[in-house]
Structure formats: C-alpha cells, structure tokens
Please model this.
Amino acid sequence: MSTLLAVNAVTKRFGGLVAVDNASIEVAQGSITGLIGPNGAGKTTLFTVIAGFEPATSGSVAFEGRDITALPTHERAIAGIARTFQIVQPFAGLSVRENIAVGAFLRHPARADALAKADAIGHQVGLGAMLDQSASQLTVAGRKRLELARALATEPKLLLLDEVLAGLNPSEIRDMMPVVQAIRAGGVTILIVEHVMQAVMSLCDSVYVLAQGRIIAAGAPGEVARDPRVIEAYLGHGAAARMQAQAAGGAHA
Ligand SMILES: Nc1ncnc2c1ncn2[C@@H]1O[C@H](COP(=O)(O)OP(=O)(O)O)[C@@H](O)[C@H]1O
Ligand SMILES: [Mg+2]
Model:
C-alpha cells in the first residue's frame, strides 16, 4: 500500500513546552491508523500541525508524496485533508443540514449544491432524521456525528478524527463504529485519535503511541497493547512488571 500521509520528524513547541517531539508517522492509503496516548501526549497538537492550523517548529509533512509543510489550512483542505475538533462547537443558530453544508461549500460553492451534499452526508452518518433541527437540539452523540459530517462534507482523502467517541455510552459507541468503517470502505483514509481501546482494537490496522510528545511504539493494535513501554506510559513506571508478576502469581495475585 502506498503512503498517503508522512509526518517526518515533526517538533512543535509552545514557548518552553515541547508538545510534539521529533514525531514521525506514516498513514497508508486506505487504512484506518490509530494514534493513542495519555492525556497531554500531543495527539491533538499533531493533528493541528498535519491540518495546518499551527506551523510545525521543525520537521515536515508530506501528503500524496508532496511536501505540504508550508501550505495554509485552506489549501490542505482542498488537497484533501479534513479534521474533526475534539471540542465540538456547531453553529447553534443553524440547522443540522446548514452546519454540514459549511463543510460542503469547500467543493460546492452554489448554496443548493452544498445543501444537497449536506443532505447525503447527513444520511450517511445517521443524522437523516435531524437535518431540519437546530444543531443546538442535538445530544452529545448527535453533535459528534455532526462534527464527523462537517469534516466528511469537504470530501477528504484523509480524515483526522479526534476523539469522536469520547463522551458516548457503550451503545452509542457500537452504533458509531460501522459509520467509521463505512467511511473507510468508501475510499477515505482515516487517522483516528481515540481513548476507547476496544474501538481502537477493532477499527485500526496499525497504531502509533505518543507519550510526552514522542512516538514510543507502533505496530498492529494487539502488539502495541501488550508493549511494556505502552503499559508504562498509561499506568506509570513499573506497571508492566507488576502486571507480569500478577499474571505469574496466578488467580489470587
Ligand atoms: N495552543 C497551545 N498553547 C500552549 N500549549 C498547548 C497548546 N495546545 C496544546 N498545548 C499543550 O501541549 C501538550 C499536548 O496537548 P495536546 O496536543 O492537546 O495533547 P492530547 O491531545 O494528546 O491530550 C499539553 O501539555 C498542552 O497543554
Ligand atoms: Mg487531544
């Protein structure tokens, strides 16, 4: 499979804080690639740099083999990169359809075309029955779908999903998984930041682990979840050894 996105040794500093530290990742065309890591690891910051909302302090980003490091956000969107925002803020005064159309205007400047595209995307993400409602009436799960729809309406090649399952209950998560799978089946490559491990395991072909700005592990989801470095990053120093000792100690440990 060819590489759609390549992040090469990206560092992002905010003053004295190194939010992303020399991180390199590759996202294969057609894949669902996961990006996991503890809170504050730099996952959202890396998305911000990939989508061009903030410049990298150093390093480069290539999309379809082309260096896009200096490209402004709007041109990256036109090239085919869309992201969702972890903090979902729909336009409360607009309908669900109009909110989705905000994304669709990128490729459909005529209002009627954008609204028609928004309609189709709304149905695709399960918001078909709510298109005429005000966005402010949506539940948390509805707002997450709307955020997904807004990004999808730009007709991306690469979709960056930042915790679209956060705040959802287990049945809402189960309902959302096939929506994400169908997007990939439709030809969109996905890079997903997610804390819900069950979702990461079943959705992702491969996973990168970020901790304190650095990529500390990468590979198939099952391998990565067993990696002692990953366990330590989540649970603290010595956690992997304690878990091994417990496993060796049998049922009473
Ligand atoms: N705009 C910003 N200005 C200053 N510090 C920031 C900014 N954005 C993120 N950070 C800091 O960078 C680190 C990584 O944050 P973030 O990328 O949001 O992590 P994650 O998404 O993995 O939880 C945190 O310490 C955070 O406080
Ligand atoms: Mg984040």
In short: The CA atoms of residues 246 and 253 lie 5 Å apart.
